[in-house]
Prior knowledge:
The structure is a single chain. The protein is α/β, with parallel strands linked by helices. It has 2 domains: 13-24 and 106-221, Rossmann fold, CATH 3.40.50.1000; 26-102. It contains 12 helices and 5 strands. A 5-stranded parallel beta sheet has the order 3-2-1-4-5, sandwiched between helices. Helix 6 runs parallel beside helix 12 (210-221). The longest helix has 15 residues, at 68-82. It is globular and about 50 Å long.
Amino acid sequence: MTGALPGRVVPRALLLDFGSVISVSPFERHAQTERTLNLSPGSLTWLGPVDPDTDPLWLAMQRDEMSERDYWARRARELGELAGEPDWDVATMLARLRQPDPNQLVRPQMQRLIYAARDVGIRVGILSNEFELFYGADMAERIDVLQAMDAIIDATHTKILKPDPRAYALALDALSCRASEVLFVDDQFRNIAGAIRTGLQVQYFDLRDVPGNIAAVAARLQVSL
């Protein structure tokens, strides 16, 4: 691996979002969701960050006209109605769509990256706005790679959501690192902007090129996959 760019500290810690970064996003699982709910192929056309023009609700969220929780609450209700089960909330949606083994939702390349980072002494943590709220209290214990985390900061409990600077401060305290020593990875621009304002290094996780993004994070950390 090449050295760090001039003036940039090689990260001592990696701070990850969970949904879409560690786990495969719902946008990438539309075909599977349609099969699970017995919907016609192509019924689900909203693609969020994969193709924002297909998803007015996603664009509204990016303009801060609605929260991420509100976005997924709307999508959960829509899917419930399509499945003939009105009044779904997000937890119900994820439970209905969940694989028997939640480890199947984890990106294998990202799991390898996390273990490679840990092997060279890089601390790894999660900063999530709704991990337990969406996935349930027992999910962290059922996902193997989460056992490798040095810290899991979940706004389900802290009540402080990204991009509030206090959310990043909690993660920095948990990782025992300065902001400049931490590489933060997230799939939402507003959370990336919040991290920049806090002084963290950042890598936007673009769902249109997942392998390329994981390779870029590995290069930033100077680890081999």
